[in-house]
Design brief:
CATH class: Alpha Beta
Number of strands: 19
Largest sheet: 11 strands, mixed
Number of domains: 1
Helix content: 25-40%
Strand content: 15-25%
CATH architecture: Alpha-Beta Complex
Domain Amidase: 112-528
Protein name: Amidase
InterPro entries: Amidase, Amidase_dom, AS_sf
Distance between the termini: 68 Å
Oligomer: single chain
CATH topology: Amidase signature (AS) enzymes
Organism: Marinibacterium profundimaris
Shape: globular
Number of helices: 18
GO molecular function: glutaminyl-tRNA synthase (glutamine-hydrolyzing) activity
Strand order of the largest sheet: 2-4-3-9-11-10-16-19-15-13-14
Structural class: alpha/beta
Radius of gyration: 24 Å
């Protein structure tokens, strides 16, 4: 290829973008031999690499010496609540309650499915939380489950229970638009592994819940997904529709994904309970990739035990996802918490914390467990974010290079189009160093979890949102109380936003506030038991959003 005409002045200008400085002699030496490096990069860009092609390098959250837990098996509760009379009360019932009613024949899957479909028809225009509804498929699947029930067959705790799946999971013959304009007509031929597993577990697919375009925020090609507690604000993202629909009783449960806050943030905003499992526990085959070394799949529900039942159905290694790790899952709804040690970072409950945060910590101390202060090493945790930006920019490089990113609705400074463009200036050397920093952070969190069984804190606790997503540790986020606030603005995440809304405008609203529990790798059962106990102690999980009848 022809010489690019790169001058020493060009190099000096580029240094400002990378935060480095070379000498005149060093610039002169580089100016004459950068062509080959550039030509190689340009040649590679001519190869169209589909989103489904993974990185050759795989992330494994396990450090040397890690011992996988051996306990397995799920023991759920068997509530004796009689079938409720009102459709709304049935819609908001827990998964154990729904399971008992369906198994006994007191409630059919068809009736339950019709209840949810009616609620979707009535409330989706307000909440904008379903991108696609599949009533014919849902009723057919419900009837099939009722036929099995009539024969005395039951597929498990999710038998006949309708759910919504985030619209980045492939569903055969059903639009899977990733929330983004360039893909709004995308129709896959096969189902994602998670969709297959849930069908095999007897769950009934109601439709595809919305997500912020390309798994960020709550703005998608159909508008903004809204919070049922205050429809004047967005429901946060990127699992926006899953959070909104579950909170509003438009499904029995839903499935979300998290790269950095996309399960926990909409749970914080909508008052739902979400479990982000250990990285590698759940197969991502057939799901849109945002960041291959960070993406995780988990349940979004209205209660802690519900999350355990759903995780059990989708847990498992998969040859079609190179990052999956075979790991047993154990949960016992009757197990106590008295022998556990719970840690907290004191600074997380300092400036910026709320009364709900402090009440949650006080409630944890009333559980009779040991609650202790912990600390983390002083590391530049926020620097890891550049690794996320680089992977995301690579996943959707063709949008940047073809200018299709201009078709996305959200074009703020923190939105994907601008972030992906900036990522082109990230240094590959720095990216390798970020990966090494990631290893130091893995060691830091491993050290902390050698001292405690779990950590409690607000959603934005210190470095934990970033750190635990990069280390792969699991997180359970549950409702802890309520705040009376004006329409909330965007929560800060680097230079971007988790949600939309104009802070401080309009009347105040009573909105939910959550608390997070982080646990050891592949030890979700412990934080689920802690969450169960905390959920009972706080007593705020059952309240419903003030939606129109």
């Amino acid at each position: 290829m022809a010489n690019k005409g790169i001058t020493e002045q060009d190099i000096e200008s580029a240094e400002k973008l990378l935060g480095i400085a070379y000498t005149p002699r060093e610039r002169a030496q580089m100016a004459g031999n950068l062509d080959g490096q550039i030509d190689s990069a340009v040649a590679r860009r001519k190869i169209d690499i589909p989103n489904a092609v993974p990185m050759a390098t795989r992330f494994d959250p396990r450090l040397p010496g890690f011992e996988m837990p051996t306990a397995s098996g799920v023991t759920g509760s068997t509530p004796d609540t009689p079938l409720l009379a009102a459709d709304e009360d049935i819609a908001f019932a827990t998964l154990p309650e729904l399971g008992v009613w369906i198994r006994s024949g007191a409630l059919t899957s068809r009736r339950l499915t019709e209840i949810y479909l009616a609620r979707i028809e009535a409330l989706n225009p307000l909440l904008n939380c379903y991108a696609t509804v599949t009533p014919d498929l849902a009723l057919a699947q419900a009837d099939a489950m009722d036929d099995l029930t009539a024969k005395g067959e039951n597929l498990g705790p999710l038998h006949g229970i309708p759910y919504g799946v985030k619209d980045l999971f492939d569903t055969a013959g059903i639009t899977t638009g990733w929330g983004a304009e360039p893909y709004r007509d995308r129709v896959p031929d096969t189902d994602a592994r998670v969709v297959t597993l849930l069908r095999e577990a007897g769950a009934v697919l109601l439709g595809k819940t919305t997500l912020g375009a390309l798994a960020y925020n709550d703005i998608w090609y159909g508008g903004r997904t809204n919070n049922p507690w205050n429809p004047e604000e967005g429901s946060s993202g990127s699992s926006a529709g899953s959070g909104s629909a579950t909170a509003a009783g438009l499904c029995g449960f839903s499935i979300g994904t998290e790269t950095l806050g996309s399960i926990t943030s909409p749970c914080q905003r909508n008052g739902t309970t979400g479990l982000r499992p250990t990285f590698g526990r759940v197969s991502r085959a057939g799901a849109m990739a945002l960041c291959w070394s960070l993406d995780k799949i988990g349940p979004m529900c209205r209660g802690v035990e519900d999350c355990a039942l759903v995780l059990d159905a989708i847990n498992g290694a998969d040859i079609d996802d190179r990052c999956t790790i075979a790991a047993p899952f154990a949960f016992d709804a009757t197990k106590g918490t008295h022998e556990l040690t719970l840690g907290y970072l004191p600074e997380a409950f300092g400036k910026g914390s709320t009364d709900v945060d402090h009440a949650a910590l006080a409630a944890a101390k009333r559980l009779g467990i040991e609650v202790v202060e912990v600390s983390l090493p002083d590391l530049p945790y926020g620097s890891l974010m550049n690794g996320l930006y680089a992977e995301a920019a690579a996943a959707f490089e063709h949008l940047t290079l073809s200018d299709l990113d201009d078709t996305l609705t959200w074009q703020d400074d923190g939105a994907w189009p601008n972030t992906h463009r900036k990522a082109r200036f990230l240094s590959a050397v720095d990216h390798v160093q970020i990966d090494r920093l990631r290893y130091l952070v893995m060691q830091a969190l491993d050290g902390m979890f050698r001292e405690v069984d779990a950590l409690i804190g607000p959603f934005m606790t210190g470095p934990m949102l970033v750190a635990s997503n990069f280390t792969g540790h699991p997180c359970l986020h549950l409702r802890a109380g309520f705040l009376q606030v004006a329409t909330r603005g965007a929560a800060s995440l680097g230079e971007g936003k988790l949600t939309t809304g104009k802070a401080g405008e309009g009347e105040t609203h009573r909105v939910p506030q959550g608390i997070s529990l982080w646990g050891r790798l592949f030890d979700e059962g412990t934080i689920l038991n802690l969450g169960q106990a905390l959920e009972a102690e706080l007593g705020v999980a059952a309240e419903r959003p003030p939606l129109p009848a």
